[in-house]
Specification:
Blueprint: E1 4-9, H1 17-29, E2 34-38, E3 52-54, H2 57-63, H3 80-85, H4 89-94, E4 97-104, H5 106-121, E5 127-132, H6 150-171, E6 174-179, H7 186-194, E7 199-201, H8 213-229, E8 235-240, H9 243-246, H10 249-254, H11 274-288, E9 295-300, H12 311-329, E10 335-339, E11 345-349, H13 350-353, H14 370-378, H15 388-391, H16 403-407
Parallel strand pairs: 1-2, 1-4, 4-5, 5-10, 6-8, 6-9, 7-8
Antiparallel strand pairs: 2-3, 10-11
Helix pairs in contact: 1-2, 1-12, 6-7, 8-11
């Protein structure tokens, strides 16, 4: 029987999913392998009747440059009991599978490692190679290499934020933008910097102080007050949804927000409107200081995940897919594929990336690095001690809105 590979996609979508899957398909087909696409992520491996289909050149050629994911995805996380009772070993044996290719984030990678160990223990070794994706850009790749999908999501996010900023300028309003990013502020900072947003709030800013809703609101007011001094009565504020991960749960509960959690223990931030929450809190704060400002909430998140990939990700994802084959030829397994700036593929072993809890710790924004520091020094606009006299007639305690004092920078 011809040797084959299985490919599945886990987690949420990112621009370039199809590019990876279809480029892997083309590469392996041209080298004599069958390629089996597994729908439903890992749920398919733990089903007696998984939804599979053979991927051929024509399907791959049609879908490789499109957004979304031809292979249906899921966040299914198998339990130990699932491994013992429900794992579909015949799927691998009957199809002479030699490689499991997984496309996803850190949770998908960790589960791939569990699958490989399980099959090895059953004397049916199947190698596994993971392709790291996330629009959050929070996987710890060397040389600050981006995760695929990030640049396409940032491009579309910046496009949306530019339009939102123009609405703010045209209408004389302030628009509060919540930007996707589960545990890191890369996407929010990228969107804020690209659109010259006068305030971007990300969780990494609070490395010298406790993150609270009050501080988020005061940072926002700092920008509004500074622009008021400059004669500018409009603007945008980008807030990373990642701040929810660092907020005290009691604070969230006090606002009336009730969080649900997915199979991996992550809060399901997409179920609530972070922008509406912040907009409501900001409205109360503006009322308390009697400052008349019109604000509007906007979410940027699900609308950037399934767009067509930009040229950067089309190229990058193709290189990652070819890298999968190169590593497979060399006998690599239990690794993520990493492509350096020269286009050469290298293995990143999951055992070296995982922490004591078995999870891959997120890569956060280097808040003290040049990119972040220059943005906050030169593009952001906020209250400094030099502005105290100017806003004393607007607010009685200007120091409360001093950007660096709020953050203890």
């Amino acid at each position: 029987m011809k040797e084959s590979i299985i490919i599945l996609c886990g987690g949420g979508p990112a621009p370039g999913m199809n590019t990876v899957v279809c480029s892997v398909t083309k590469t392996f087909i041209c080298n004599g392998y069958r390629v089996i696409g597994l729908h439903g992520g890992y749920s398919g491996l733990f089903s007696k009747n998984p939804r599979t289909e053979e991927l051929d050149f024509f399907k791959a050629d049609y879908h490789f440059n499109r957004g979304g994911s031809y292979l249906e995805m899921s966040r299914f996380k198998p339990s130990d009991e699932d491994f013992e009772k429900n794992f579909n070993i015949p799927l691998f044996k009957d199809n002479n599978v030699k490689l499991l290719v997984t496309v996803g984030g850190d949770d998908t990678a960790s589960t791939a490692n569990r699958v490989a160990k399980f099959l090895e223990a059953k004397n049916f070794p199947v190698r596994n190679i993971h392709v790291p994706k996330t629009i959050d850009n929070d996987l710890p790749l060397p040389q600050n290499a981006p995760t695929f999908g990030f640049n396409s999501a940032k491009d579309e996010g910046a496009h949306l934020a530019r339009t939102i900023y123009e609405d703010a300028r045209t209408s004389g309003n302030w628009l509060l933008i919540s930007c996707m990013g589960r545990s890191a502020g890369h996407l929010a900072l990228g969107v804020g910097e690209a659109t010259h947003c006068p305030m971007t709030i990300i969780p990494e800013m609070f490395y010298k102080t406790t993150l609270t809703l009050d501080k988020i609101i005061r940072l926002t007011l700092s920008s509004i007050l500074k622009r008021r001094l400059m004669g500018i009565r409009y603007g945008t504020v980008v807030v990373s949804e990642g701040v929810f991960h660092d907020l005290d749960p009691k604070e969230l509960k006090a606002t009336g927000v009730t969080m649900s959690y997915d199979e991996h223990g992550h809060p399901e931030l997409g179920k609530i409107s972070k922008a509406v929450l912040f907009n409501d809190l900001l409205g109360k704060a503006l009322g308390e200081i009697n400052l008349k400002v019109k604000t509007r909430p906007v979410e940027i998140g699900y609308d950037v995940r399934c767009q067509d990939p930009v040229a950067y990700d089309l190229t990058y994802c193709t290189e990652l897919a070819m890298g999968v084959f190169e590593l497979f030829q060399k006998g690599e397994t239990a690794c993520m594929v990493y492509v350096d700036h020269n286009g050469e593929a290298h293995p990143l072993y999951l055992r070296d990336l995982q922490g004591p809890d078995g999870k891959i710790p997120p890569r956060r924004v280097n808040i003290r690095g040049g990119r972040a520091q220059n943005y906050y020094a030169h593009i952001c606009q906020y209250i400094t001690p030099q502005d105290y006299d100017g806003i004393a007639s607007i607010v009685p305690d200007p120091e409360v809105y001093d950007f660096k004092k709020i953050l203890n920078w």
